[in-house]
Amino acid sequence: MKIATIGLNCLFSGALLALTACNSSSSAIKESTKTEETAQLAAEASTEAAKEENKELAKVITKKGGVQNRGAYIKVLVNKTPITNYDIQRRASFLKLRRISGNRAKIAENEMIEQALKLEEAKKRRRTATKAQVDAAFLNFAKQNRATPAILSRELGKLGVGAPHFKEFIKTQISWQRTMQGKFQAETTRVSEQQAIKQLRDSGNQKPKVNEYTFKQVIFVVPKNKRSKAALAKRKREANAFRQTYSGCETLLQSIKALKDVSIIDRRHLMEPELPGNWKEAISKTSAGSTTGVQETERGVEFMAVCSTRTVDDDRAAQVTKQSTDFTKFGKESSEFSKKYLNELRERATIVYQ
Fold first, then answer.
1. What are the respective helix, strand and coil percentages of the chain, to the nearest 5?
2. 244 and 121 belong to one structural domain
3. Domain that holds residue 166
4. Deepest of 105, 109, 190, 305, by most Cβ within 10 A of its Cβ?
C-alpha cells in the first residue's frame, strides 16, 4: 500500500516525541514549477540576510565553497559538523511534506544548523538516542500509516526526503528532549531544602504534606530472547498466583526463594512525586500490606508490594514538592526552554558558511 494513498504523519517535538497527523499526500504537496522557481529566487536573495541574523548569535565565518563530491558540497560547518547542499535539499523536501511554507531553503538551512547543535550537545551530555530507539520510532511511524518500514523508506525516497534523513530527524527529536530534561533536572536538583523552604515562605505557603512510601518491586523476569505473548501470559498467571499467597514484606524475600527467575528491588522512603510514572496511580491507591496489580514491563511481569505509608511535612518534602512543581512547569514551557537553550549553544558555536 502506497503512503501517498493513506497520508503521512509529521513528527514534532514536545514533552515527548509526538506523532501528529498532518493528512498530507504526494498529490497534496505538488506545487507548480513557477512557485518553486520563485521560492528558489527568494532563497538566494535572503542568504546574506540569514547570515547577518546568525552573526548575532554565533561566530560566523564566510568562506568560498570548496569540497565537491558527485554534485554535493559543504555549505555550512557548525563547529566541526558539515552540512551539505544535499542535506539542505532533503530537509527542504521534508518541510514541503510537513506543509511548512515560506522560504524553505532558508528554513531548511536553519533547521540543519540547529540539528547539528542539538546532536552535538546530546552527545556531550550522553543523551543521544540509540539506533534501537530510532528504529523503534520509525517502525511505529510506519505502523500508524498502515505501512512497513520498507514501504515507508521507499515512499520517503520518492518524495525527496529519504529514510536516513528522516531517521536522523527522529534521532534529533528524541535526543534533544532527553538533553533538555537532563539539563533541567540538573538545574532543579541544585535547589536545597533550605532554598525550597525559603521560597515557600516568601510565597506565603506552609510546608506541604506529602505521602511517603516504602515498597518492594517484585519482578517475574522474562528474558528478551524468550519474550512472547505466551511467555508473558504464563508469567502473569504465576505473578497473580503468588500475590494470592502474599503475607507481607517481612516474609517476601523468603517466599520467592522457591520461585524461578524472580527478583526484588527495595524502594525506600519515596515521596509521591518521586514514584515511577507508570506505577504512581497504582501505588497511591494501594494500602500498606497489599500489592498493586500486575503490569508487563521491559523486564517481564511486575507488581509492587507496599510495605508502609506515612504523611510527612518535613524539609525534604518541601524540596521534592518544589522540584515536582518545576518539572510540571517545564512540561508546559518546554518550547521556551528549548529556544533559550539553543540560543546559548549558538552563542558558543562557530558557524562557517562555505
1. 55, 20, 25
2. no
3. 3-185+349-353
4. 109
C-alpha cell of residue 36 = 518553486
Which three cell numbers mark 256? 520467592
Give the pairing of strands 350-353 and 59-62.
parallel
Q: Considering only residues 116 and 67, tell me which one the structure prediction assigns the higher pLDDT.
A: 116
Q: Can you give the length of the chain in residues?
A: 354
How many domains does the chain fold into? 2
Percent of the chain scoring above 70 in pLDDT: 68
Residues 132 and 41 in one domain: yes
pLDDT confidence bin for 156, thresholds 50/70/90? very high
Residues 176 and 214 both lie in one domain: no
Q: CATH number, domain at 179? A: 1.10.4030.10
Contact (Cβ atoms closer than 8 angstroms) between residue 45 and residue 37:
no
Please report, as a single letter, which amino acid is at residue 28.
A
User: CB count, 10 Å around CB of 53?
Assistant: 13
Quick check: is 201 in a domain? no
Residue 271's DSSP bridge partners are 212
Tell me what pLDDT residue 72 has.
81
Nearest to 321 by CA among 188, 224, 136, 215: 188
Buried-state track 267-294, b at ≥16 Cβ within 10 A, e below 16: beebbbbebeeebeebbeebeeeebbeb
pLDDT at position 272 is 78
Distance separating alpha carbons of residues 172 and 126, to the nearest angstrom: 13
pLDDT value of residue 290:
94
